[in-house]
Protein backbone atom coordinates (compact mmCIF):
# COMPACT_ATOMS: atom_id res chain seq x y z
CA UNK A 1 0.00 0.00 0.00
CA UNK A 2 1.51 3.28 -1.12
CA UNK A 3 1.17 6.43 0.90
CA UNK A 4 -0.54 9.18 -1.03
CA UNK A 5 0.77 12.65 -0.52
CA UNK A 6 -1.88 15.35 -0.56
CA UNK A 7 -1.12 17.92 -3.17
CA UNK A 8 -1.05 21.55 -2.07
CA UNK A 9 -4.05 23.46 -3.36
CA UNK A 10 -3.35 25.65 -6.34
CA UNK A 11 -3.11 29.38 -5.54
CA UNK A 12 -6.16 31.37 -6.52
CA UNK A 13 -6.02 33.14 -9.80
CA UNK A 14 -4.86 36.72 -9.44
CA UNK A 15 -7.66 39.22 -9.78
CA UNK A 16 -7.11 41.90 -12.37
CA UNK A 17 -8.69 45.14 -11.18
CA UNK A 18 -10.02 47.15 -14.09
CA UNK A 19 -10.62 50.79 -13.20
CA UNK A 20 -14.04 52.17 -13.90
CA UNK A 21 -14.02 54.64 -16.73
CA UNK A 22 -15.75 57.88 -15.81
CA UNK A 23 -16.74 59.19 -19.20
CA UNK A 24 -19.03 61.77 -17.65
CA UNK A 25 -16.07 63.50 -15.99
CA UNK A 26 -14.27 63.84 -19.29
CA UNK A 27 -17.38 65.20 -20.98
CA UNK A 28 -18.02 67.68 -18.15
CA UNK A 29 -14.37 68.79 -18.19
CA UNK A 30 -14.45 69.30 -21.95
CA UNK A 31 -17.65 71.33 -21.71
CA UNK A 32 -16.22 73.54 -18.96
CA UNK A 33 -12.99 74.12 -20.89
CA UNK A 34 -14.99 74.99 -24.02
CA UNK A 35 -17.07 77.52 -22.09
CA UNK A 36 -13.95 79.07 -20.54
CA UNK A 37 -12.36 79.30 -23.99
CA UNK A 38 -15.46 80.96 -25.45
CA UNK A 39 -15.53 83.52 -22.63
CA UNK A 40 -11.82 84.19 -23.10
CA UNK A 41 -12.26 84.71 -26.84
CA UNK A 42 -15.22 87.03 -26.24
CA UNK A 43 -13.24 89.22 -23.82
CA UNK A 44 -10.16 89.21 -26.04
CA UNK A 45 -12.21 90.44 -29.00
CA UNK A 46 -14.10 93.03 -26.94
CA UNK A 47 -13.51 96.73 -27.49
CA UNK A 48 -11.57 97.05 -24.23
CA UNK A 49 -8.17 98.67 -24.02
CA UNK A 50 -6.52 96.29 -21.54
CA UNK A 51 -3.18 98.08 -21.81
CA UNK A 52 -4.45 101.08 -19.79
CA UNK A 53 -5.57 98.98 -16.81
CA UNK A 54 -2.08 98.66 -15.26
CA UNK A 55 -1.64 102.44 -15.58
CA UNK A 56 -4.60 103.10 -13.26
CA UNK A 57 -4.22 100.32 -10.68
CA UNK A 58 -1.98 102.48 -8.49
CA UNK A 59 -3.40 105.83 -9.55
CA UNK A 60 -3.52 108.16 -6.48
CA UNK A 61 -7.28 108.63 -6.81
CA UNK A 62 -7.89 104.88 -7.06
CA UNK A 63 -5.64 104.16 -4.07
CA UNK A 64 -7.46 106.87 -2.10
CA UNK A 65 -10.80 105.29 -3.01
CA UNK A 66 -9.57 101.85 -1.93
CA UNK A 67 -8.40 103.30 1.37
CA UNK A 68 -11.81 104.94 1.91
CA UNK A 69 -13.50 101.61 1.15
CA UNK A 70 -11.34 99.85 3.73
CA UNK A 71 -11.77 102.67 6.26
CA UNK A 72 -15.56 102.82 6.09
CA UNK A 73 -15.85 99.01 6.02
CA UNK A 74 -13.81 98.63 9.22
CA UNK A 75 -15.74 101.37 11.04
CA UNK A 76 -19.11 100.03 9.92
CA UNK A 77 -18.12 96.51 10.94
CA UNK A 78 -16.98 97.65 14.39
CA UNK A 79 -20.29 99.48 14.85
CA UNK A 80 -22.19 96.42 13.64
CA UNK A 81 -20.36 94.03 15.97
CA UNK A 82 -20.74 96.22 19.07
CA UNK A 83 -24.40 96.95 18.43
CA UNK A 84 -25.00 93.34 17.37
CA UNK A 85 -23.75 92.04 20.73
CA UNK A 86 -26.05 94.47 22.53
CA UNK A 87 -29.02 93.47 20.39
CA UNK A 88 -28.30 89.76 20.90
CA UNK A 89 -28.27 90.20 24.68
CA UNK A 90 -31.49 92.22 24.46
CA UNK A 91 -33.09 89.54 22.28
CA UNK A 92 -32.20 86.82 24.80
CA UNK A 93 -33.35 88.91 27.75
CA UNK A 94 -36.38 87.85 29.76
CA UNK A 95 -37.53 91.47 29.71
CA UNK A 96 -40.36 91.60 27.12
CA UNK A 97 -39.72 95.27 26.29
CA UNK A 98 -36.03 94.90 25.41
CA UNK A 99 -36.55 91.63 23.57
CA UNK A 100 -39.41 93.11 21.51
CA UNK A 101 -37.41 96.23 20.62
CA UNK A 102 -34.47 94.07 19.53
CA UNK A 103 -36.76 91.83 17.48
CA UNK A 104 -38.34 94.85 15.75
CA UNK A 105 -34.91 96.34 14.98
CA UNK A 106 -33.70 93.09 13.43
CA UNK A 107 -36.94 92.66 11.49
CA UNK A 108 -36.78 96.17 10.00
CA UNK A 109 -33.10 96.34 9.06
CA UNK A 110 -32.97 92.81 7.67
CA UNK A 111 -36.17 93.36 5.72
CA UNK A 112 -35.19 96.55 3.85
CA UNK A 113 -32.41 96.97 1.25
CA UNK A 114 -29.15 98.59 2.28
CA UNK A 115 -29.41 101.09 -0.57
CA UNK A 116 -32.78 102.30 0.70
CA UNK A 117 -31.39 102.70 4.21
CA UNK A 118 -28.46 104.73 2.89
CA UNK A 119 -30.79 107.04 0.98
CA UNK A 120 -33.01 107.45 4.03
CA UNK A 121 -30.06 108.53 6.16
CA UNK A 122 -28.86 110.81 3.36
CA UNK A 123 -32.23 112.61 3.36
CA UNK A 124 -32.87 112.49 7.12
CA UNK A 125 -32.88 116.30 7.17
CA UNK A 126 -36.42 116.16 5.76
CA UNK A 127 -37.49 114.64 9.06
CA UNK A 128 -35.06 116.39 11.44
CA UNK A 129 -33.98 119.70 9.88
CA UNK A 130 -32.04 120.69 13.01
CA UNK A 131 -29.97 118.45 15.23
CA UNK A 132 -30.28 119.73 18.79
CA UNK A 133 -28.55 117.72 21.50
CA UNK A 134 -28.54 120.50 24.08
CA UNK A 135 -24.76 120.85 24.08
CA UNK A 136 -24.57 120.74 20.27
CA UNK A 137 -26.87 122.29 17.67
CA UNK A 138 -26.44 122.36 13.92
CA UNK A 139 -28.30 121.84 10.67
CA UNK A 140 -28.74 118.18 9.81
CA UNK A 141 -27.39 118.74 6.29
CA UNK A 142 -24.10 119.83 7.82
CA UNK A 143 -23.99 116.94 10.27
CA UNK A 144 -24.97 114.13 7.89
CA UNK A 145 -21.80 114.00 5.79
CA UNK A 146 -21.26 111.17 3.25
CA UNK A 147 -18.92 109.42 5.71
CA UNK A 148 -21.44 109.54 8.56
CA UNK A 149 -24.26 108.54 6.23
CA UNK A 150 -22.33 105.50 5.00
CA UNK A 151 -21.28 104.60 8.54
CA UNK A 152 -24.84 104.65 9.86
CA UNK A 153 -26.37 103.00 6.80
CA UNK A 154 -23.87 100.16 6.63
CA UNK A 155 -23.18 99.78 10.36
CA UNK A 156 -26.78 99.73 11.57
CA UNK A 157 -27.75 97.28 8.86
CA UNK A 158 -24.82 95.03 9.73
CA UNK A 159 -25.83 95.09 13.41
CA UNK A 160 -29.06 93.28 12.56
CA UNK A 161 -27.16 90.38 11.00
CA UNK A 162 -24.44 90.33 13.65
CA UNK A 163 -27.04 90.12 16.41
CA UNK A 164 -28.32 86.85 14.96
CA UNK A 165 -24.78 85.51 14.63
CA UNK A 166 -23.93 86.43 18.22
CA UNK A 167 -27.22 85.04 19.48
CA UNK A 168 -26.51 81.70 17.79
CA UNK A 169 -23.03 81.69 19.33
CA UNK A 170 -24.33 82.41 22.82
CA UNK A 171 -26.98 79.71 22.56
CA UNK A 172 -24.32 77.19 21.46
CA UNK A 173 -22.70 77.38 24.93
CA UNK A 174 -24.09 74.88 27.40
CA UNK A 175 -26.36 76.36 30.06
CA UNK A 176 -24.34 74.60 32.73
CA UNK A 177 -21.56 77.12 32.09
CA UNK A 178 -23.87 79.93 33.13
CA UNK A 179 -25.11 78.08 36.20
CA UNK A 180 -21.55 77.30 37.28
CA UNK A 181 -20.54 80.94 36.86
CA UNK A 182 -23.46 82.14 38.94
CA UNK A 183 -22.56 79.56 41.59
CA UNK A 184 -19.10 81.12 41.78
CA UNK A 185 -20.66 84.51 42.46
CA UNK A 186 -20.29 86.08 39.02
CA UNK A 187 -22.85 88.60 37.85
CA UNK A 188 -24.70 88.28 34.57
CA UNK A 189 -22.36 90.74 32.86
CA UNK A 190 -19.24 89.00 34.19
CA UNK A 191 -20.56 85.63 33.08
CA UNK A 192 -21.24 86.95 29.61
CA UNK A 193 -17.84 88.64 29.28
CA UNK A 194 -15.62 86.01 30.91
CA UNK A 195 -17.37 82.70 30.23
CA UNK A 196 -20.01 82.81 27.51
CA UNK A 197 -18.52 85.05 24.82
CA UNK A 198 -15.03 83.46 24.85
CA UNK A 199 -16.57 80.04 24.24
CA UNK A 200 -19.05 81.38 21.70
CA UNK A 201 -16.26 82.90 19.60
CA UNK A 202 -15.67 79.56 17.89
CA UNK A 203 -19.16 79.85 16.42
CA UNK A 204 -19.16 83.64 15.96
CA UNK A 205 -15.82 84.16 14.19
CA UNK A 206 -16.39 82.30 10.86
CA UNK A 207 -19.64 84.07 9.87
CA UNK A 208 -18.26 87.37 11.18
CA UNK A 209 -15.31 87.07 8.82
CA UNK A 210 -17.70 86.37 5.97
CA UNK A 211 -19.76 89.40 6.94
CA UNK A 212 -16.69 91.67 6.87
CA UNK A 213 -15.65 90.42 3.44
CA UNK A 214 -19.20 91.05 2.29
CA UNK A 215 -19.02 94.52 3.87
CA UNK A 216 -16.01 95.37 1.71
CA UNK A 217 -18.16 94.79 -1.36
CA UNK A 218 -21.40 96.22 0.03
CA UNK A 219 -19.60 99.50 0.76
CA UNK A 220 -19.75 100.16 -2.99
CA UNK A 221 -23.40 101.18 -2.42
CA UNK A 222 -22.08 104.26 -0.59
CA UNK A 223 -21.43 105.62 -4.08
CA UNK A 224 -25.09 106.65 -4.06
CA UNK A 225 -24.51 109.08 -1.15
CA UNK A 226 -21.42 110.65 -2.76
CA UNK A 227 -18.85 108.89 -0.58
CA UNK A 228 -15.50 109.00 -2.46
CA UNK A 229 -14.92 105.25 -2.21
CA UNK A 230 -13.46 102.96 -4.86
CA UNK A 231 -16.41 102.83 -7.26
CA UNK A 232 -16.95 106.61 -7.02
CA UNK A 233 -13.29 107.29 -7.83
CA UNK A 234 -13.30 104.81 -10.70
CA UNK A 235 -16.46 106.36 -12.14
CA UNK A 236 -15.04 109.88 -11.87
CA UNK A 237 -11.89 108.83 -13.74
CA UNK A 238 -13.90 107.00 -16.41
CA UNK A 239 -15.97 110.11 -17.09
CA UNK A 240 -12.83 112.01 -18.15
CA UNK A 241 -10.76 109.21 -19.67
CA UNK A 242 -13.74 107.46 -21.34
CA UNK A 243 -12.29 104.15 -20.15
CA UNK A 244 -15.47 102.99 -18.46
CA UNK A 245 -15.11 99.21 -18.50
CA UNK A 246 -11.36 99.47 -17.94
CA UNK A 247 -11.91 101.35 -14.68
CA UNK A 248 -14.39 98.73 -13.53
CA UNK A 249 -11.66 96.13 -14.06
CA UNK A 250 -9.34 98.26 -11.94
CA UNK A 251 -11.96 98.36 -9.18
CA UNK A 252 -12.35 94.57 -9.41
CA UNK A 253 -8.59 94.12 -8.97
CA UNK A 254 -8.62 96.17 -5.77
CA UNK A 255 -11.68 94.37 -4.40
CA UNK A 256 -9.99 91.03 -5.09
CA UNK A 257 -6.83 92.19 -3.31
CA UNK A 258 -8.72 93.35 -0.23
CA UNK A 259 -10.96 90.30 0.03
CA UNK A 260 -8.02 87.92 -0.50
CA UNK A 261 -5.94 89.53 2.24
CA UNK A 262 -8.76 89.42 4.76
CA UNK A 263 -9.76 85.89 3.73
CA UNK A 264 -6.26 84.73 4.66
CA UNK A 265 -6.54 86.53 8.00
CA UNK A 266 -9.95 84.97 8.60
CA UNK A 267 -8.50 81.50 7.93
CA UNK A 268 -5.85 81.84 10.64
CA UNK A 269 -8.23 83.44 13.15
CA UNK A 270 -10.66 80.54 12.69
CA UNK A 271 -7.82 78.06 13.28
CA UNK A 272 -6.93 79.84 16.51
CA UNK A 273 -10.44 79.57 17.95
CA UNK A 274 -10.88 76.00 16.66
CA UNK A 275 -7.92 74.68 18.65
CA UNK A 276 -10.07 73.82 21.67
CA UNK A 277 -12.58 71.80 19.63
CA UNK A 278 -10.25 69.90 17.31
CA UNK A 279 -6.77 68.68 18.18
CA UNK A 280 -5.90 67.33 14.73
CA UNK A 281 -6.22 70.47 12.67
CA UNK A 282 -5.23 70.19 9.01
CA UNK A 283 -1.90 71.83 8.19
CA UNK A 284 -1.93 75.36 6.88
CA UNK A 285 -0.78 76.06 3.31
CA UNK A 286 2.48 77.46 4.70
CA UNK A 287 3.03 74.33 6.77
CA UNK A 288 2.35 72.12 3.75
CA UNK A 289 4.79 74.20 1.70
CA UNK A 290 7.52 73.81 4.32
CA UNK A 291 6.87 70.08 4.56
CA UNK A 292 7.17 69.69 0.79
CA UNK A 293 10.42 71.65 0.87
CA UNK A 294 11.82 69.29 3.51
CA UNK A 295 10.76 66.24 1.50
CA UNK A 296 12.27 67.68 -1.66
CA UNK A 297 15.48 68.52 0.20
CA UNK A 298 15.75 65.00 1.58
CA UNK A 299 15.66 63.58 -1.95
CA UNK A 300 18.36 65.94 -3.15
CA UNK A 301 20.63 65.58 -0.09
CA UNK A 302 23.54 63.20 -0.87
CA UNK A 303 24.04 60.27 1.43
CA UNK A 304 27.02 60.53 3.77
CA UNK A 305 29.11 57.38 4.06
CA UNK A 306 29.66 56.24 7.63
UniProtKB/TrEMBL annotation:
This is ABC transporter permease. One of its GO terms (biological process) is amino acid transport. GO terms for cellular component: ATP-binding cassette (ABC) transporter complex. It is a multi-pass membrane protein. InterPro entries: AA_ABC_transptr_permease_3TM (IPR010065), ArtM/GltK/GlnP/TcyL/YhdX-like (IPR043429), MetI-like (IPR000515), MetI-like_sf (IPR035906). It comes from the Bacteria. It comes from Streptomyces griseochromogenes. The chain crosses the membrane at residues 26-46, 66-90, 248-269. Belongs to the binding-protein-dependent transport system permease family. Signal peptide: none annotated. Pfam families: BPD_transp_1 (PF00528). The keyword Signal does not apply. One of its GO terms (molecular function) is transmembrane transporter activity. Keywords: Amino-acid transport, Cell membrane, Membrane, Transmembrane, Transmembrane helix, Transport.
Amino acid sequence: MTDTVDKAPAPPEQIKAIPVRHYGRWVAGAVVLALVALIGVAFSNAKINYSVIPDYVFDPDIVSGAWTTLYISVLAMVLGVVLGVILAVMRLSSNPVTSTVAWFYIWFFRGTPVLVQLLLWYNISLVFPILNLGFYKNEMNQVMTPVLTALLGLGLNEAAYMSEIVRAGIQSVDEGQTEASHALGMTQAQTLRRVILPQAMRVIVPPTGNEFINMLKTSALAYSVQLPELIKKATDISSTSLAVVEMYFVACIWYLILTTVFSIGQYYIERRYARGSSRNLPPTPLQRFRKNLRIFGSFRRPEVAR
